[in-house]
Amino acid sequence: MTSPVRLALLGCGTVGSEVVRLLHEQSTDLTARIGAPLEIVGIAVRRLGRDRGALPVDEALFTTDALGLIKRDDVDVVIEVVGGIEPARGWLVEALRAGKSVVTANKALLAEDGAALHDAAAEGRADLYYEASVAGAIPLLRPLRDSLHGDRVNRVTGIVNGTTNFILSAMDATGAGFAEALEEATELGYAEADPTADVEGFDAAAKAAILASLAFHTRITAADVHREGITEVTAADVASAKAMGCTIKLLCIAARGRDAAGSETVSVRVHPAMIPLTHPLASVGDAFNAVFVEAEAAGQLMFYGRGAGGAPTASAVLGDVVAVARNRLAGVRAASESAYADLAVRPMGEALTRYHVSLDVADRPGVLASVAGVFARHDVSIATVRQGSAGGGRPGSGDDAELVIVTHMAPDAALAATVGELHGLDIVRSVTSVLRVEGEA
Ligand SMILES: NC(=O)C1=CN([C@@H]2O[C@H](COP(=O)(O)OP(=O)(O)OC[C@H]3O[C@@H](n4cnc5c(N)ncnc54)[C@H](OP(=O)(O)O)[C@@H]3O)[C@@H](O)[C@H]2O)C=CC1
Ligand SMILES: N[C@@H](CC=O)C(=O)O
């Protein structure tokens, strides 16, 4: 019998405990697939003696000394499902430099300082796999890294955060406000006790950085990603989107472009956007994720599935464990990622989109002309205007009216300047919302 591939598991929470369960349940099949058994030799956690359900593992394997575990001679593969930047970065750099294969789900670390991990992997000639870091169970990173390697990816558009997709889908289905939908997401266990990373877009921005780096063979960090969350999306925005035949999604968009000198650039952004119901991402509901990839020769590809949760994420972790275990037995490591392109990041101000702008204005003659004049001054062309009564006032009386303006494509900076000037107009009582509109209606 071939000697076992020995695993150190760092973290035994939502994902880690499912990794333990799957390793146990699938052990016979995994051994047959790899050609050697997998053996957990230690599990690092923050607190010992915590109730972890009926985990099929010896209690004596648990330790709070993660670094000590990593350094042991009998560890071949380190699986990191703890999360956060430190101490995870130090652990993984140590493991990779020592030639140990690493499998991680840590998107925050990869997006903040993936370069440190890749450099350590090259130094130690070790494997670094991280399929679970983006879109949970969905096989996405390896298709980008391997299957699409002969093609040129031009754009990636995705819904990569399950919690926010659940919230926006609930707002769309029931007309609920953001706070109410967040409460439901928390009750169902989708949102964490502190949902900031999800609802403010940090989680999606980290995933966008990882996707853009792989798709365009360049190094993008979370700091390069323009980020907006969904906390400002209102029930009125959702209703307005419906009236336009659209729905609102938190999108991650990474695209190639060119600067004024003709040099290739990349733009990466995460923000809520209205998309037409005919768009492939519009029907992605609940806590599901989906990523739409546009490549030169392959055309349009769509990846869909469960992007969060213990078991789906553990499935992706296990897939990576099998790959690195096979590599070790064959005495090879995966080819290094090709981050040769060094593309400049295009400023958000140059991003071109359409906009949906809602205004609460005084309902009196000339208001439309004044508002339209502001858009014209900033070279933002108006596509449609809809006027309704905001407070039940009499038309033409000077009471409040609601104006909803949808623009043609315009640069983000021009729209920001337009909104800035609208705020200062005395007939504009408030700019109630500004949302981007993506995809052709
Ligand atoms: N949950 C999900 O749906 C998904 C998660 N991920 C990523 O997977 C990783 C893990 O997430 P998740 O399982 O949800 O997180 P949890 O918070 O459920 O689990 C974290 C685990 O790490 C342990 N831990 C924390 N700090 C330390 C430390 N200093 N030393 C040793 N162990 C420590 C905790 O120990 P203790 O049990 O003692 O508290 C716990 O077992 C993260 O990077 C996350 O972003 C990726 C995709 C989806
Ligand atoms: N909090 C994340 C979990 C997976 O990455 C989400 O909601 O998608």
From TrEMBL:
<keyword id="KW-0028">Amino-acid biosynthesis</keyword>
<dbReference type="InterPro" id="IPR019811">
    <property type="entry name" value="HDH_CS"/>
</dbReference>
<dbReference type="Pfam" id="PF00742">
    <property type="entry name" value="Homoserine_dh"/>
</dbReference>
<dbReference type="Pfam" id="PF03447">
    <property type="entry name" value="NAD_binding_3"/>
</dbReference>
<keyword id="KW-0560">Oxidoreductase</keyword>
<dbReference type="InterPro" id="IPR002912">
    <property type="entry name" value="ACT_dom"/>
</dbReference>
<dbReference type="InterPro" id="IPR045865">
    <property type="entry name" value="ACT-like_dom_sf"/>
</dbReference>
<comment type="pathway">
    <text>Amino-acid biosynthesis; L-methionine biosynthesis via de novo pathway; L-homoserine from L-aspartate: step 3/3.</text>
</comment>
<keyword id="KW-0521">NADP</keyword>
<protein>
    <recommendedName>
        <fullName>Homoserine dehydrogenase</fullName>
        <ecNumber>1.1.1.3</ecNumber>
    </recommendedName>
</protein>
<dbReference type="InterPro" id="IPR016204">
    <property type="entry name" value="HDH"/>
</dbReference>
<dbReference type="GO" id="GO:0004412">
    <property type="term" value="F:homoserine dehydrogenase activity"/>
</dbReference>
<comment type="similarity">
    <text>Belongs to the homoserine dehydrogenase family.</text>
</comment>
<dbReference type="Pfam" id="PF01842">
    <property type="entry name" value="ACT"/>
</dbReference>
<dbReference type="InterPro" id="IPR036291">
    <property type="entry name" value="NAD(P)-bd_dom_sf"/>
</dbReference>
<comment type="pathway">
    <text>Amino-acid biosynthesis; L-threonine biosynthesis; L-threonine from L-aspartate: step 3/5.</text>
</comment>
<dbReference type="InterPro" id="IPR005106">
    <property type="entry name" value="Asp/hSer_DH_NAD-bd"/>
</dbReference>
<comment type="function">
    <text>Catalyzes the conversion of L-aspartate-beta-semialdehyde (L-Asa) to L-homoserine (L-Hse), the third step in the biosynthesis of threonine and methionine from aspartate.</text>
</comment>
<keyword id="KW-0486">Methionine biosynthesis</keyword>
<keyword id="KW-0915">Sodium</keyword>
<keyword id="KW-0791">Threonine biosynthesis</keyword>
<dbReference type="InterPro" id="IPR001342">
    <property type="entry name" value="HDH_cat"/>
</dbReference>
<feature type="domain" description="ACT">
    <location>
        <begin position="356"/>
        <end position="436"/>
    </location>
</feature>
